[in-house]
Amino acid sequence: MVNHIADRALLLDSLRRELVGPDPRGEELDCTQPVSFAALDKSYGPWRQKENGEEVLQRDPPTKRYGIGVLYPAQTLDQDDSGVDALLTQPAVVLPDALDPPQDDPLTAQARRDLEDIQHRTERSSAEPETEDLDLSSANSYRPSSVAVSFLASVPKGAQLIVEATGGRYQRFPVTIEEKERTWWLRSPVRLRAQFNRDDLLSIQKKLIQPTDVESTNLSDLDIRIEVYGRPSSISDARLFTVCLVNRSSASSIDERSLFQFHFKAHFESTGKQAEILPYPAVELEKPDDEEQSLALLYRETETFAIGHGCAADWSINATRTSALAITGECLPTFETPSVTPDIRRQDGSAIDVSMAALAGLIQGDDGLDALEDVVAAYEQWIDEREKGISLLDIKHRTPAERHMRECARCADRMRDGIDFLNSDPRAMRAFRLANEAILLQQLHSRRESRRLVYDTKGKRLTFSDPYVAQDTRIETAGRGKWRAFQIAFLLMTLRSTADGRASDRSTVELIWFPTGGGKTEAYLALSAFSILMRRLRNPADAGVEVIMRYTLRLLTAQQFQRAAGLLCALEYLRRQPTNEKDLGQVRFSIGIWLGGSSTPNSRQQARSALTALSQAQPYAENPFIITKCPWCAAEMGPVELEGKIPSAIPKVHGYERQGDTVVFKCSDRTCDFSSGLPIVVIDEDIYDMCPTLIIGTVDKFAMLAWRPEARAIFGLGSNGTRKSSPPGLIIQDELHLISGPLGSMVGLYEALIEELCTDRRNGSVPPKIVSSTATIRRYASQVRDLYGRETVALFPPPGLSASDSFFAQHARRPDGSLAPGRIYVGVHAPGLGSLQTAQVRAFTGLLQAPLALPDAARDPWWTILAFFNSLRELGTTLSLLQSDIPDYLKVIRNRTGAAPDLIRRLRNVKELTGRLPSEEIPLAISTLEAEYGGQRTPVDICLASNIIEVGVDIDRLSLMAVVGQPKTTSQYIQVTGRVGRRWWERPGVVVTIYVASKPRDRSHFEKFRSYHERLYAQVEPTSVTPYSRPALERALHAVMVAYVRQFGTEAAGRSPYPIPQGELAALRDLLVPRVTQIDPDERASFERLYDARTDEWRRWERNRYSGAPSDEEIPLLRPAGGYASPEHVRISWPTPQSMRAVDAECQVEITTLYLNDRGADNA
Q1: What is the pLDDT of residue 1164?
Q2: How far is CA 169 from the centre of its chain?
Q3: pLDDT at residue number 514
Q4: CA dihedral 430, 431, 437, 439 (to 10 degrees)
Q5: Burial letters 321-334, b for 16+ CB under 10 A, else e
Q6: Which residues pair with 490 in a beta bridge?
Q7: Residues 888-943: pLDDT tens digits?
Q8: How many domains does the chain have?
Q9: How many C-beta atoms lie closer than 10 Å to residue 689's C-beta?
Q10: CB atoms closer than 10 angstroms to residue 521
Q11: I want to staple 1027 with a disulfide (CB 3.0 to 4.6 A). Which of 748, 756, 941, 1087 is the partner?
Q12: Contact status, residue 767 vs residue 797, Cβ threshold 8 Å
């Protein structure tokens, strides 16, 4: 049976052997006497020393072979001579050419084509703005000769400090091959032990403390020293110590005078009371706020006990976790973060299962409500137990602990209220049961593998690789049909405020904070289904948009659209059933995707043109229709490449059809329930006409409200601004932490308008329900207030007394109580290699080669590297490495190890996952990542990815990631690395972070590697949103004014800005002034002045049109921001954003002959 956890240990060991060493392998060779080989082929090896099993380097000098964990002689200049070319040109043994035929080249023809495609996209894409950290490459001009760790310790009488260091040194060894002398290198282990007594350690006069006893092995002329420095601390009876490992050898021979594979440990031995290594001093806040108090409570058991200097500090701790037993200096640190499980159990240990089928009313004799009671009762019992433990906490933690428990109790009360609501409202109960059935159907259908179209040459017709078989919803399958506790709990606590517009919690923003992969999307979709069904059950004729789901990234939007489309198909399937059709109305449930023109068609004309180009298989034809498989039966849709000789009459596009002047979707399998039409809308004009039940879009698209008056239909408004149907009642904003900085400020500025559009004022005032998720809880309440103008936010699940247990999310444990396997992070910091590029070559090659040592059945988790880059420029650099250096270094490994050709990695499939990909290629790229090793499809070797993977890439097989450079924010680091190891109980992930050695921020993260990863969520930076700051107002206040008029105004006001619509502008002013006062009162006066100035400009300019082509004689009121504008346009029109993101302004170059006139004047 395959044990992926044991295999992971082998992979990490292989990586350490490649990067740090030593890597003894091969046959034994007696090196105690002269060695000679009569023939070249007899010398190939590899060899290890017979007398001690130590490594023999045949090909590479040690400083070329290793660049991590090396202490060089002092004043050794840093030269980037560790590249592949240097290794390939070494005068050492090489394998004969006969063993390296073209078919065994590490870079296959297909991989070369993949890399060329990525290269072409790189050349076509515009340069992106780069925000670089300070680079100290010129400052760090010497290779490291010392490393250290600092810690705080209390040293009682009878205690002494022991420091032990180990490593290796390499010495020249002459070898004769065919009567020619070659240089090989023999490794010998090095050991150093120093002892420091208490009196010297506590001496005030001695900063540098001398050891009282030193023992060493195999040092001879290698001058390696252990140095300890002491200094006072603010804590009585404790001192700060810095333990250094220093190479003070002369630089006469760098290879022979360097210490390799260093590792050192500091601990205390005592004849009496034991010395204590105490938590490292941190900056104490004089008045910590509520959030800082909460973090101190939650992470009170994860103290930092040391920091590194040039290396990473690690430690072992005592049973009470109050002090450390030993401190170590690591050159290749690792840390295993605990896995989080959403599974909960009763007190007797039995699992609490919540069946969707039972809650849907599909299981005879079980209505599922007892399971809901079990969840709430178990949570209430958990709260009671935690409340009893508060008195045992340190007094400084009791106030935040009591606050946490009040929030938990409030959450439990809302959950119980949700059950009461269902029991007291038959309509709500029916909507709830139908929602459960819809989610169950969606799960059963949306996770199917794509069913490929094939041409049956015998029957001369198209058929499918797998026939469509409907699944029985009453039969639970693995991973489907059961609610996770937090999902059903979230649904229960939000039922009343979603269904009842006047509920006390209607204005409360629900904020889900749950680890990546926990199932937040299913919780959203369930609440969406309930909201949709409640609206129709109240009034079957009240069709229109009920749910708006907003995302920040195009990839996530497209992928979530595929999942949500399955839910809307399920709802529509249920609506059609005879028992439901009367109560749910005649208008179908549908879903629309609202994106920019580069992703989906803005007009029907664009859609028709795109379909024609696809049908004719025109070169470079792009597919803007998003859907590539039926969300119900998984039949292949869109442009299809059929294998074999296909008659010309067979269409090239399947499932997309022209109907009248638009394009519609019909499943290409006639046996599917949706072969007559899928409830999917992707064309903007169709969205405005059809008003699909659920709309998924990016936040950017809402900037188009100023440009598209017809968008008012989405909000239930007629052509004259009057309400014709209910507005959207539920707004879901995914990944709230991404709505920050300039983007967040722009979103916040538009948010007042969007909320007003979604507020039903026909009978009082009913605002929309807002639900969101976040990867961070830092300053979440202020962010919600600044974005949505709402003072109440409910975090779910609320934290408990420890970061390891919030009831709904707990650290996963084995039956014996120990932590279950988690994701392992590895830190690669390689100043000795000279450049980030060389470090990448070594790390990537090591990771690519490692799975070859495993049997075929064990390779899949470790076969595909998902590589994340902070910028497309850095990605481009690695692209170049993949085209030459990495394949070449694979040859180096082959030459070094003498491995058979089938045991050297060959790159066959290289993919890109960035914003440069056309929208239609993104689902395909994700699909290729799902291809498993040993399956029918070729698995991806390495996928080069940008921040597009922060959210939405949910592929269980991915277990190996490389992160090149520390990401800009911790929330991004959490989200990106959460893409791997999602199936932690079977194949927990590995994340290798390759730090940029010349950047101080990267070095700091490396030196504090354990501290950072042990408190990862506590390290998240607070977000900032300033929607009413002067820059945001200058950029887009006029856009919000125009959008309000064009959405709420009369049809005439929506067509022309003249005459100025005083009534609408006054109403908007009255709407915004209280919001500005609430969010940023200091900006109120500035806001009012600018609002009045914009109103005055609107009046004075007397423009007749809102927009137009740049070539039009009549200047419109609006012009696209960032585009070229003539001086006359600048004078009487507003640059208006069509996106929420920053757009660089363009300039236009004009060729002039005026200088000739100037020259003539000079000569006159």
Answers
A1: 47
A2: 41
A3: 84
A4: -160
A5: eebbebbbbbbbbb
A6: none
A7: 999 999 989 888 888 899 999 999 998 888 777 777 888 899 999 998 889 999 99
A8: 4
A9: 13
A10: 20
A11: 748
A12: no
Helix, strand, coil percent values for the chain (each to nearest 5): 40, 20, 40
DSSP annotation of 157: T
Token pair of 570, please?
């399920």
Please state, in angstroms and rounded to a whole number, the distance separating the CA atoms of residues 408 and 757.
33
Residue 924 domain-assigned?
A: yes
What would the two tokens of residue 972 be? Answer: 């991004």
pLDDT tens per residue across span 54-95: 999 998 899 999 999 999 998 877 765 545 555 544 433 344
Q: Show the tokens assigned to 840.
A: 């990448």
Task: Give DSSP secondary structure letters for 1073-1090.
Answer: HHHHHHH-GGGHHHHHHH
Nearest alpha carbon to residue 1063 among 1043, 1084, 1048 = 1048
CA distance 293 to 826: 30
Omega before 1059 within 30 of 0, i.e. cis: yes
Measured in degrees and rounded to the nearest 5, phi and psi for residue 219 equal -85, -45
Q: Is 638 left (phi over 0), alpha (psi -120 to 50) or beta?
A: left
The length of the chain in residues reads 1164
In a shared domain, residues 582 and 700:
yes
Please say which residue of 732, 748, 770 terminates a domain. 770
- CB neighbours of residue 695 within 10 Å: 24
Please tell me whether residues 829 and 915 are part of one structural domain: yes
* Domain shared by 1049 and 986, yes or no: no
The whole-angstrom distance between residue 853's C-alpha and the CA centroid of its chain comes to 30
Q: Identify the DSSP state of 805.
A: B
Asked whether residue 764 is domain-assigned, the answer is yes
Q: For tokens 């229709």, what's the residue?
A: 625
Contact in structure between 945 and 868 (CB atoms under 8 Å): yes
Contact residues for 488 (Cβ-Cβ < 8 A; gap 6+):
354, 372, 375
Contact 736, 774 (CB under 8 A): yes
The C-alpha atoms of residue 870 and residue 968 are separated, in whole angstroms, by 7
pTM comes to 0.91
- CA separation for the pair 277, 268 (Å, rounded): 9
Residue 971 lies in a domain: yes
CATH label of the domain that carries residue 968? 3.40.50.300
At what angle are helices 885-897 and 872-883 packed, to 10 degrees?
A: 50
Pair of tokens at residue 685: 């004009």
| Single-letter amino acid, residue 61 | P
Phi first, then psi, for residue 702 (nearest 5°) are: -70, -10
Residues 846 and 706 in one domain: no
Q: Which residue has the tokens 């390296």?
A: 100
Taking CA atoms, 1027 is separated from 261, 785, 971, in Å, by 53, 11, 22
Span of 89-103, 202-216, 359-373 with lowest mean pLDDT: 89-103
Q: Are 681 and 659 in contact (CB under 8 A)?
A: no
Q: Which of these three, 298, 331, 364, is where a domain ends? A: 331
Q: Are residues 842 and 748 in the same domain?
A: no
Query: Which tokens is 366 given?
Result: 């079980």
Asked if 986 and 1034 sit in the same domain, the reply is no
Reply yes or no on whether the pLDDT at 298 is more than 80.
yes
Neighbours of 650 (CB within 10 A): 14
What's the token pair of residue 580?
Answer: 């439901």
Residues 102 and 160 both lie in one domain: no
Beta strands in 233-281 (DSSP E): 239-247, 260-270, 276-278
Whether residue 707 is contained in a domain is answered as: yes
CA 705 to each of CA 317, 688, 753: distance values in angstroms, whole numbers, following the listed order: 58, 12, 10
Domain that holds residue 646: 537-770
Tokens representing residue 527 in the block:
């609440």
The per-residue pLDDT of the chain, averaged, comes to: 90
Q: How far is CA 240 from the centre of its chain?
A: 38
- Cα separation, 1025 vs 1028, in Å, equals 9
Using one digit for the tens of pLDDT, what is the confidence trace for 715-729? 999 988 899 999 999
β strands within 271-323, DSSP E: 276-278, 307-309, 312-317
Same domain, 766 and 866: no
